[in-house]
Each structure stands twice: as C-alpha cells, then as structure tokens.
Amino acid sequence: MSAAASVLNTKVLVLNRSFLPVHITSVRRAFSLLYQGIACAVNEQYRTFDFESWADLSVSVHDDSIGLVNRVVRVPRVILLVAYDRLPRRQVRFSRFNIYGRDRSICQYCGKKFARSELNLDHVVPRSQGGLSRWENVVCSCHVCNRRKGGQTPEQAGIRLLRPPRRPEWTPFMLETFSLRRYKEWTPFLSAVDVSYWNTELLE
C-alpha cells in the first residue's frame, strides 16, 4: 500500500452541527464530504473551513497531508456535518461487541482473558429456565467454562460469577475505538458524551 493510500484510510472524527462527536470515518470519505460541501473541516480552535479554504492552509512538516493534482493538502482530523443535527444516543446498545467491551474479553467464570474468537456469550440464567437476553443476564464465557456450565445456572453448576453483570453507563465500543489511535486534534471534541455506533443490537 502506498503512503498516500495509507493516509487516506486513517481516521477522522465526525461531529454533528452542535459539535458533538457522532461517528468516525476515513480520510478518503472525509475529503469526499468536504469536497461536496456536506461537511466542513474543523481545527482545534473550533474554526470551520470549506474545501477551498482548508486546501489554502499551509502544510507543516508535522501535518499528515495528501498530494492533489496541483497542491498538497493537509488531512483534516475533525469534520462537521453542516446539515446533521441528530444527537448521539445515550443508551448503550445491547450488542455482542459491547458485551465483549464491558467484560474486557475476560471469561466471567474463570477470570482469564481470551481472544474474542475463543469466547461465547453465556446466559447466566439459561433461556431454558426463563433467562432473558439482557445486559443483566449475559456475560462473556470461555469455551471450557461454557461447556462446564451447560444449561444450568452458576449455582447449579458449582461455579461463581466474577461480578454481577450490569448495563454499562458508557459505550465500550466508543472507548475501544478511540483508544486505537486518538489524534490530538480530537481532544477538544471528546467528552463524556455517549457516542452510539451502528453495531447490531442483540434481540430476544
């Protein structure tokens, strides 16, 4: 992969019209939105720039940049959607990804950390005994503990939970995504706002 292609695939924070973070996209997509006038670039002083004014900014040796036909343009790390005013969801989605995030990929019976491919989602009270698919009844479980527990409650199987499962008050997916690479340009816009991503919600 070329250096330019590599930069185009890095991440950009997306804000709504109220400057609240609502998504993360690629540099490639961000430039497309900027060029179409759907978004503005935003700097750390909250100033907004359309495509032309952003392209006119000087590029320093410390900036990520891409070369266009007749100029080099700084990569925007934050963009604002000019016509999007929806608020981020404040309720944490009940999804496989978020359960792994809440439990930090640790089996809630033996306490060992595993790769996600080596974990199951276990109903503490089995569905066969009336257990529901909800935050307070689903935990990460390794294959060995899952087989040992079978269709029983932990008490019936003679094993113990590390801690009672609860609905998180934050979005594990957001925290994990931001921790992968947090650009300094994002810092002014990241707060305690609970950002919802479009991951699949688990249903009954």
Question: What would your notes on this structure say?
Answer:
The structure is a single chain. The protein has 204 residues and is an alpha+beta fold. The protein folds into two domains: 102 residues, no CATH class; 62 residues, DNA Binding (I), subunit A (Orthogonal Bundle). The strands form three sheets. A five-stranded mixed beta sheet has the order 2-1-7-3-4. Strand 1 and strand 2 form a beta hairpin. The longest helix has 9 residues. It is elongated and about 70 Å long. It starts with a helix and ends in a 24-residue tail after the last helix. The C terminus is likely disordered.
In brief, what are we looking at here?
The chain is α+β, with helices and mostly antiparallel strands. The chain has helices at residues 3-8, 27-35, 51-55, 96-103, 143-149, 154-157, 172-180, and strands spanning 11-15, 21-26, 39-42, 48-49, 65-67, 72-74, 78-81, 119-123, 138-142. The protein folds into 2 domains: 3-88 and 174-189, no CATH class; 96-157, DNA Binding (I), subunit A.
